[in-house]
Amino acid sequence: MLGQMHWGYGFIGFAAFAATSALDMWRLRMASPSAAQVRWFAFARMHIESYAMAPLLPGHIGVDAYRVATIGRGTGQGYVEPAVILFGLRVFSLLTMLGLTFGLFLGLPEWREVYKPLVLAVISFPVWGVVLTTVAALLSVVLAWLLWRRAGPRLLNRFAGVRQAWAALTWPRLMRLLAMSIAMIILRIFTFLLTLQAFGIELDVWLGTSVALCAALAWLLPLSPAGIGVREGVIVGLLVWLGIDYVPALAVALLNRVYFLLFAGIGGVSFLLPKTNATLATQENHS
Fold this sequence. Notes:
Helix content: over 70%
Main location: membrane
Largest sheet: none
Number of helices: 14
Number of strands: 0
Keywords: Cell membrane, Membrane, Transmembrane, Transmembrane helix
Distance between the termini: 51 Å
Pfam families: LPG_synthase_TM
Subcellular location: Cell membrane
Membrane topology: Multi-pass membrane protein
Order of helices and strands: HHHHHHHHHHHHHH
């Protein structure tokens, strides 16, 4: 596989992956007041080390959990605000990628054979099933409302830092966050398309984009540590479905994983290096 790889495309793909990671770090620092208090060097070190923590938890949870824990400990202002901010950023990216994927699946004829049986099954769904589903949805809404009435005020008290972050979210800052989030999605797609070119795979740009989005969504599923096997299975399965041979499809999936592992290796070395109190100090304490 390495002998067949075009190293130029491979290195450019890694540069695109690094640019995506840098945007991810800058976006969190801009969105979270607590994260903005951490010195840049300590924040960058925390960001790269979080990749090494990914195998500890399923999906992307290990990365986010380490970032939240480090910010909360370094600032001494708790973990709720950075956790909610980071969760909101992930939800926005998730919904955006889901919308793009849904649009491509509807617009590209190659995917219609995939979801056509599902559409036929939904159309033939019995009436009593629709009634039961509607009743279950209404009961879920009522249960959620009762739980909110019981625990809502206490939750609001714990989310005081979130209100502070919301107050700091001006329209210019919100527009910058939206632009950065969309740029990250575009860079993820660009990285995947470069890995296809690295192994000489000629695929329609829109088809490659849809596969890249499905791979990114698969990484967020909490099914295996760091999404290992899940993301690769989605990439290989979809590429083979589209007529790509198994070996180059597997090579593309592994190259995408190698990019992440390189960052995880750098983060692991950083994590093993000694840390001082000054390294984790906030800008206010440092001054």
